[in-house]
Amino acid sequence: MNQRFSLSSAIFFLLTIGLGLYFAFAAVQGPSGILRRVQVEAETDELLAERERLQAEVGEMQNLTRRLSDEYLDIDLLDERARDVLGLARPDEVIIR
Questions:
Q1: Which residues form a coiled coil (predicted)?
Q2: Which of 3, 25, 26, 78 might form a disulfide with 30, Cβ 3.0–4.6 angstroms?
């Protein structure tokens, strides 16, 4: 009986160790593990930086739109955009390419 008790204890011990290793592996590598959390935080930082860049770009576009609106027309900006988009130039200008 002593031999059977030690065999069942060994099986229980091995099973406990196996489950412990499985849960430790899952805590590090699993879908909610430490490595995934680090990856998600890095992606979050990248997305926040991209959002700030896009917000700055939207602010610039809103400024340009306001400066070309009927309420507030910036003649210099209108002239610049017409030259850039339409390829216009004044007769007294020399174009260097």
A1: 37-71
A2: 26
